[in-house]
């Protein structure tokens, strides 16, 4: 999905966290402290399992989310996280630990690992080929309140009109942001944001905000 080839994008796209970017309630299902495997970068919590799961839970995004965030960053779209969770520190820690592949260009920032040889090929460790997820977000509104408050803050901080904002969230009650002019997309239960839903959201935003038709005087 190459967003650079897309005709029009909102200037700001925001995402809820729980059951939108990841498949858990961070304040209920995740037991701190979090741990990161030094060999793989995979993040785990400190639980012995929940809802029938055994062992620590993996703290990660839904499968399509890393690619969506990377494409948005490459396209110059402002990315925001809007969550009403009360587990603010834990949510922030998860965003700092979860890693997103850099693509063709590897980041060496904060890297202490050196490349290793494997069958004659030089491969880079996860610390050099990925970046912390939090670096992909331009704005973070993570605190318990009505989502309209989050978007009023985004409007104040960015200066962007609500008509240029698209929001993905799994709770119907948060559709109330539409009274501000934000385009709201409901994330189906248990699905999370995936490429199809994301494209559907872009189409809905374009439908609501069509490009102005050039007037005769502009010709």
From TrEMBL:
Pfam families: Acid_PPase (PF12689). Signal peptide: none annotated. Residues 104-120 have a biased composition (Low complexity). Residues 104-127 are annotated as: Disordered. GO terms for molecular function: acid phosphatase activity. Gene3D superfamilies: HAD superfamily/HAD-like. PANTHER family: MAGNESIUM-DEPENDENT PHOSPHATASE 1, MAGNESIUM-DEPENDENT PHOSPHATASE 1 MDP1. This is Magnesium-dependent phosphatase-1.
